[in-house]
Every structure is written in structure tokens, then in C-alpha cells.
Amino acid sequence: MNSLTGYLLLSALLFSIGLAGALTRRNAILVLIGIELMLNAANLNFIAFWRYGPNPSALTGIMFAIFSISVAAAEAAVGLGIILAVYRHAKTTDLDQMNSMKG
Amino acid sequence: MTASFLILAALTIAGTAAAMSLRNLIHCVLALTLGFLGLAMLYLQLGAQFVGFTQILVYIGAVAILAVFAIMMTQSAGPHAQPALSSFWITGCLVAGTVFVVLAWAICSGSASAPTPPQPGVSVNQIGDALMHQFALPLEIMGLLLTAALIGAVILAMPEKKGEQ
């Protein structure tokens, strides 16, 4: 078991934890955080493949990770804005009670 | 597979698992910052210093603080009578476990034993140079996306007008 396998296994575990959180939690903010965790697992894969790949001087993995972090930040801002807007209508962030799309 | 990797991996997994399983939402976000910090340390260990410090600045400094503000503004930080997990949590855990087993099987069966290359030395200078020349167009598009997301988030969170009367 070499180092790359360890990083990939850690990333898979991180992805599964994020997926489990996004699927099972009732609070909408924690679901969003679970999605962020899945994005982080992908970032770890980018960096690990860049480090142990055949051509680390090309910087492609680092660039992918930087752009991915930027997109994740934009996604978090918009997602939390949507959650606040939904909370103003429904007065709850409980996903089990948000079962209607009509405000 | 060094000791530092194992310690950082344990820190990351413990932080994220606590973030996804604790009941108090503020505690969840605090545990999440621990997980993000472990991930940033892993990036540093892999030789990607810029990405590691970006991770600390963006995730711990911005995303976690934003989540704390959202939790306080939606008043969901207090004690709850309802359970923290949704009604179909067993199915969700089963799906996540299946995904992990499939991913781990694919990783373990497909990994070739390539020799570890030497640690690449990447300076911020090189990254800035690449961003200004090779990746100039993606950088511009990213600036546009961030501006649009900023304006969109402000418009979404603004209080609505009273409607037509």
C-alpha cells in the first residue's frame, strides 16, 4: 500500500462522510456543509494525483484545486442565501417540514 | 504511509465525522473547522503550500463563519426536541457505506506500485505566473463567477418588498 492509495482511501472516506451527512441530517445548513465536504474530498484527490503523478511541474492539479475552492466558496454563499430566503417563508430549516415548493 | 499522515488523517476524519453527527449545530461547525484544518495540513504535507493556506483562509475564515452566521440567523442553535436525523437515515447511511466500499474496492484493485517521485518545489511565484499567462482566461471567468455569486447572494438574502397592494 503506497502513499497515493492512502490519500485516495482517505478521500473516499471523506466523501462518504459528506454523503452520509447530506442524506441523513434534517437541518438544511448541515446538508450544505456535507456537500462542501464532498467537494473537499475531490480537492484532496486533485492534490494527491498532482503530487504522485508523472509530471508534477505542470501545476495542473494545484490550479484545479484553487478554482474548485473558489467555486465552493461561491456555492456556499449562494446556498446560505437561499436557506435564509427559504427560512423567511417557511420559518424553519428542517428539511422534513419543507415539503412544499409553493410559498 | 508515515505517522504524520496517519495522525492528520485521523484528525480530519474525526473532525468531519463529529461535524456530521453532533446534535448542537454550533458544535458541528467547530468540529468542521478542525476537519478543514486537518485537510489544510494534509495539503501542506503534500507540498501544495498555497492550496493549504488558501484552504485555511477560505474554508475556516469564510465558509465556517458564514455557516455560523446562518445558524444564528435561523435560530436553530438552541436545544431541539426533534431528532437531528431525518426519517430515512438508515437508507442514507447504507447508500454512503456502499459508495465507500465501491470506491475503496476500486482504489485497492487498481493501484499500481509506481515509484514515489521527489517532492516538487512549487513557489507562489510560479503559481502567479501560471495564473497570469496559462490560466488567464479561467481566472477572469472565476472573477466573473464570484461577482455574480456575490450579487446573487445579496439579492437572495435581501428582505422582500411587501408585494403589490
From TrEMBL, chain A:
A GO cellular component entry from the record: NADH dehydrogenase complex
Membrane topology value: Multi-pass membrane protein
Assembly: NDH-1 is composed of 14 different subunits. Subunits NuoA, H, J, K, L, M, N constitute the membrane sector of the complex.
Transmembrane segments: 30-50, 62-87
Record-listed E.C. numbers: 7.1.1.-
Keywords attached to this entry: Cell membrane, Membrane, NAD, Quinone, Translocase, Transmembrane, Transmembrane helix, Transport, Ubiquinone
NCBIfam families: PRK05715.1-2
One function term, GO molecular function aspect: NADH dehydrogenase (quinone) (non-electrogenic) activity
Function recorded in the entry: NDH-1 shuttles electrons from NADH, via FMN and iron-sulfur (Fe-S) centers, to quinones in the respiratory chain. The immediate electron acceptor for the enzyme in this species is believed to be ubiquinone. Couples the redox reaction to proton translocation (for every two electrons transferred, four hydrogen ions are translocated across the cytoplasmic membrane), and thus conserves the redox energy in a proton gradient.
GO BP term, pick one: ATP synthesis coupled electron transport
Family statement drawn from the similarity comment of this UniProt entry: Belongs to the complex I subunit 4L family.
Organism: Granulicella arctica
Official protein name in the record: NADH-quinone oxidoreductase subunit K
Classification lineage: Bacteria, Pseudomonadati, Acidobacteriota, Terriglobia, Terriglobales
Catalytic reaction equation(s): a quinone + NADH + 5 H(+)(in) = a quinol + NAD(+) + 4 H(+)(out)
Superkingdom field: Bacteria
Subcellular location as annotated: Cell membrane; Membrane
Automatic annotation (TrEMBL), chain B:
Catalytic activity: a quinone + NADH + 5 H(+)(in) = a quinol + NAD(+) + 4 H(+)(out)
Sequence intervals crossing the membrane: 29-44, 56-75, 87-108, 135-158
Keyword vocabulary terms for this entry: Cell membrane, Membrane, NAD, Quinone, Transmembrane, Transmembrane helix
Subcellular location field: Cell membrane
Keyword Transmembrane helix annotated: yes
Major location (coarse): membrane
Matching Pfam families: Oxidored_q3 (PF00499)
GO cellular component, one term: plasma membrane
InterPro entries tied to this protein: NADH_UbQ/plastoQ_OxRdtase_su6, Nuo/plastoQ_OxRdtase_6_NuoJ
Enzyme class: translocase
Topology versus the membrane: Multi-pass membrane protein
GO MF: NADH dehydrogenase (ubiquinone) activity; quinone binding
Entry similarity comment: Belongs to the complex I subunit 6 family.
Function: NDH-1 shuttles electrons from NADH, via FMN and iron-sulfur (Fe-S) centers, to quinones in the respiratory chain. Couples the redox reaction to proton translocation (for every two electrons transferred, four hydrogen ions are translocated across the cytoplasmic membrane), and thus conserves the redox energy in a proton gradient.
Protein's recorded name: NADH-quinone oxidoreductase subunit J
